[in-house]
Amino acid sequence: MSGASAITRFLLRRLAHAAFLLFGVSVLAFFFSTFAPGNYFDDMRLNPQISAEQLTALRADYQLDRPMPVRYIRWAGAVLHGDLGLSFAYNTPVGPLLWARARNTLLLTGTAAVLVWMLALPLGVWSAEKLGRPADVALSWATAVLLIIPDLALALGLLVLAVRSGWLPTGGMVSVGSDGFSAAHRVRDVAWHMVLPVAVLVASALPVLLRHVRAAMAEALQAPFLRAAEGQGISRRRLLLRYALPAAAHPLIALFGFSVGTLLSGSLLVEVVMSWPGLGPFLLEAILARDLYVVIGAVLLSTLFLVAGNFVADLLLYWADPRIRAEASRR
Amino acid sequence: MIAWGEKTDSKEILEVRDLRVAYGQWDGGVWHALNGVSFAVGAGEILAVLGESGSGKSTLAGSLLRLLPRNGRITCGEILLEGADVVRMDAVQLRRVRGSGVSIVFQEPSLALHPTIQIGAQIGEVLRAHGTLSKRARSARAREILAKVFLGDVERIFSSYAHELSGGQQQRALIAQAIACDPVVVIADEPTASLDAKTQGEILTLFRSLRDELGIAFIFITHNPGLLAGFADRVLVLYAGKIAEVGPTHAVLSSPQHPYTQALLRCVPRFDGGGAVRRNALLPVISGAAPSLAVLSCGCVFEPRCEERMEVCQIHAPVAARLGNRHEVACLKFPA
Amino acid sequence: MEPVIRVENLVKRLAGRGLGRRVKAFTAVDSVSFSILPRATLALVGESGSGKSTLALCLAGLERVTSGRIWFEGRDLAALAEKELRAVRPRLQLVFQDPASSLNPWWTVGEIVAEPLLVNGRTAKREGHARAALVLEQVGLAAEYLERRAQDLSGGQRQRVAIARALILEPKLLILDEVLSALDCSIQAQIANLLVEIQRAYGLAYLFVTHDLRMAAHLADEIAVMSGGKIVEQGVTQDILRNPRRFETQSLLAASRVEPEAM
Q1: How far apart are alpha carbons B268 and B289 in whole angstroms?
Q2: Mean pLDDT of the residues in chain B
Q3: B271: nearest CA in chain C?
Q4: Do B265 and C218 touch (CB under 8 A)?
Q5: What's the complex ipTM?
């Protein structure tokens, strides 16, 4: 089996999995949203100025009176054309709405993810090297403490600090009157607003990742091939980076895929608490308002990221480990 | 490669003097793995170290390059490599010695090779650690070395990964890595233990030809006396951390003097082409079990299992007695 | 005399093995035939990859054969269903090479040896342990070993336990797959002696699979040389040693003949 067709088959298989997963999630999301009690227009019924006939007409307009499978098929067909439906609350297409919010979220989580990895990798390698020594023990304690503190507590704590000290903005993404700022000023402004939420995100993700890096490296450092390489006079630095780290990569690549996967979904709490205009608060709002297509659209988008993250991880693993390539080409 | 020292009058390139190694146990106790081992290896010599489990042979292998686990310590002794004492070297000198003065080939070749680095690149790493060749020159040199060790198929081996090779090929790859920087001594720790008889023979032949061609000395550690005739120049028999007997292969194998060596060699079934073997006859065995090394005994360490033990053996530890022609025994039957 | 086991034209084809090697089916065991008389030992010698271990697994019922027959106690094992095989298994036992991985390290020796009795459902726990103690004694381990954990034993001791476990069901045939290869020299001698004694005491037949021609010559009445899945030469031990006809046999002899000189 030649290399090119093996990787193609691998990719195609993974893509097929992904498509199937998306389909399944969309059905489930549609199903549950539909069968959740109530719909968007229920609240309007309480309003005496809207008559029952108007409500029925509105519902017919939005096709809420058709049976579910029909609605699903129409919706699925629309999605495949790029149309995610209409938001009841905003009366505009769902796609652009979601995307605007998603962009903000990605800005936050993307930055946080980069920072977390930039911190976890060197720290993890270093502490595995110093395994058991005082420095490593101290770091373990610090990570444990960070792990125990709930995200919410951390977020609120930092907010209080911001309020008291007045150094950092206490929420939102831009300052008042930012429309009049110059481009550079605007960038600085956003960055300033990002400090707190990114700090919370990093603090909550770092302990777990750090432990994994440390564990994977520690295991790799025990391996016989490392001792053999040491016996050949390879320098310690080279042993760590060229021998141990690649051997420890397997679980770390999986984690990286997971990082990518949760880019859209991992920051809901932080966004709500810190009033960051991302996907999280928007989704929350939509759920409470029974804004059906927004909810399903958001769920689908999150799933897409999750699936993409897995896919990226699979690809990286395939590239990084020749044994997986060999195994895949056997099938 | 370390430049040959000025001590040209002695042909010995590696000399071990009174080496003692102990492991700290987690319960506070100490395990005395090596208790005063002294021997020398001449240039281009194949020295076999014969020992069973618990004899200290793997500890010896590791300690020659100070590659002991964290709880192991060299408590005493000198390891003189062309005059320089490995025990007292600092980290920089030690790293230079490893791989280019003395190399080591471990057991279990499938585990000793990195799983995701190609063979050629692994050899390249060793070259990189000990020289200033460019990447291209390193690749060329790696191919050169592989050609010496593999009979053909160099290109395929060069770009293979460890899991794509058979056991024998993996061992050859490790050997190639070990000789890449022209060491003067290569330590092979049970290199053939996981291989079948035919491949074992091939590896031994390889060692001999490397010795003949490149003048490398080998310290060949094994528990199998059947491998030694026609291969090793001298045999050193290790028991419970001490040398029982050492001498030219022919002398030790055909007229062993130490009771342990005699008993050990008797354990190997006679292989008589004449068919005069009484099949299913019981083999003579060594009674008792290997001693615990948690406590240092003051008498001879083999005494409890020795068929020729005398009263004095419990009190005095034997010292090496010279029997002529570089054949030495540590047994109280032979006064020092 | 009826042979204990008779193998006829046994074939075993495998899908391509090993990572990175070409995917193709290959014939691990290629039409092999032999038989073993009661109380006799047949040694199966060959290099790694010759198919001898696969053959051992097929005989023990751990691998399905592709074609051929295995006559044991008047029935063809190759044609039996799993349930029926289970009834036969007690009398055809397999001992593996690596005692470290074939014994559960957390179990005590008593549990390991008694397990075959208890699993077959025929025996109560107390009786099972009593029988285990008896068998252990026969393999040279005192009663105190019953409570020791497998991981605390040496290689030789573990191999004794593995043999005891195989013996407790009173088999007629014992397949020994490289059982001595991982042991030290002097321990090999001890276990080899044990095997000889057990054979006399229990009246067993042995299939001794090994790459060590030396030990095979010591223990076996007949030697079969395997190469590339086929038996290339077979005969009485003395004949094989004195007049090896095939190249494979000769090279195995040459590899093993590194002889300590006369003592």
Answers
A1: 18
A2: 87
A3: C214
A4: no
A5: 0.85
A327 interfaces chain C, CB cutoff of 8 Å: yes
CATH class of B12-101+181-270+281-329: alpha beta
Give the rounded percent of residues in chain B with a pLDDT score beyond 70: 94
Tell me: the pLDDT tens digits for A265-307? 778 888 988 888 888 889 888 888 888 888 888 888 888 888 8
Contact C19 A329 (CB under 8 A): no
Inter-chain CB proximity B130 and A233 less than 8 Å: yes
pTM (global) more than 0.90: no
Phi, psi of C168 (to 5 degrees): -65, -20
Look at B163 and C19 and tell me if their CB atoms are within 8 Å.
yes
Out of C47, C186, C255, closest to residue B286 by CB: C186
Query: In this model, does residue C18 exceed pLDDT 60?
Result: no
Chain C: nearest CA to B27, how far in angstroms? Answer: 16
Rounded to the nearest 10 degrees, how much is the dihedral formed by the CA atoms of B313, B317, B320, B321?
-40
DSSP B3: P
Chosen CATH of C35-63+173-257 out of 3.40.50.970, 3.40.50.2300, 3.40.109.10, 3.40.50.300: 3.40.50.300
Backbone angles phi, psi at A205, to 5 degrees: -90, -25
Domain parsing of chain A, residue ranges:
3-330
If you measure CA to CA, which chain B residue comes closest to A244?
B114
Asked if the Cβ–Cβ distance from C258 to B224 is below 8 Å, we say no
Express each pLDDT in C234-246 by its tens digit: 999 888 888 888 8
Contacts of B262 in chain C (CB under 8 A): 263
Distance from C-alpha of A44 to C-alpha of B231, rounded to nearest angstrom:
97
Q: What mean pLDDT is reported for chain A?
A: 85
Residue C186 DSSP SS3: helix
Q: Which two three-digit tokens encode residue A95?
A: 């796609």
C105–A contact, CB cutoff 8 A: no
pLDDT score for A289 = 83
Largest interatomic CA distance in chain B:
67
pLDDT bin (cut points 50, 70, 90) of residue C17 is: low
Count Cβ atoms within 10 A of the Cβ of residue A127 and give its class: 0-12 exposed, 13-18 middle, 19 or more buried: buried
Task: Give the residue-averaged pLDDT of B180-205.
Answer: 90
Interface touch C215/B226, C-beta < 8 Å: no
Q: Which residues contact C79 (CB under 8 A, 6 or more apart)?
A: C69
Give dist(CA B257, CA B261) in Å, integer: 7
Alpha-carbon gap, residue C92 to C72, rounded angstroms: 9
Tell the residue number behind the tokens 């019924």, with chain if given.
A45
Of B146, B148, B150, B152, the closest CA to residue B126 belongs to: B146
Q: Could you tell me the sign of the dihedral formed by the alpha carbons of A147, A149, A150, A154, in that order?
A: negative
Which residue in the set C219, C242, C262 is minimally distant from B280, CB to CB?
A: C219
Two tokens at A234?
């390879």
Q: Which residues of chain B are in CATH 3.40.50.300 domains?
A: 12-101+181-270+281-329
Q: Which of B198, B262, B289 sits opposite C255 (nearest CB)?
A: B198
Per the rule left: phi > 0, alpha: psi between -120 and 50, beta: everything else, B18 is left
Closest A-chain CA to B180: A232
Closest by Cβ to C185, choosing from B223, B256, B282: B223
Cβ neighbour number for residue A279 with a 10 Å cutoff: 28
Chain B CB within 8 Å of residue A320 CB: yes
Q: What is the mean pLDDT of the segment spanning B122-133?
A: 92
Partner residues linked to B234 by β-bridges: B47, B248
State the smallest CA–CA distance between residue B269 and chain C in angstroms: 6
**Annotated domain spans of chain C:** 35-63+173-257, 103-171
Range list of H helices, chain A: 3-35, 42-45, 52-61, 68-80, 94-129, 134-148, 151-165, 183-222, 224-231, 236-238, 245-261, 268-273, 279-289, 292-320, 322-330
Q: Which CATH class is domain A3-330?
A: mainly alpha
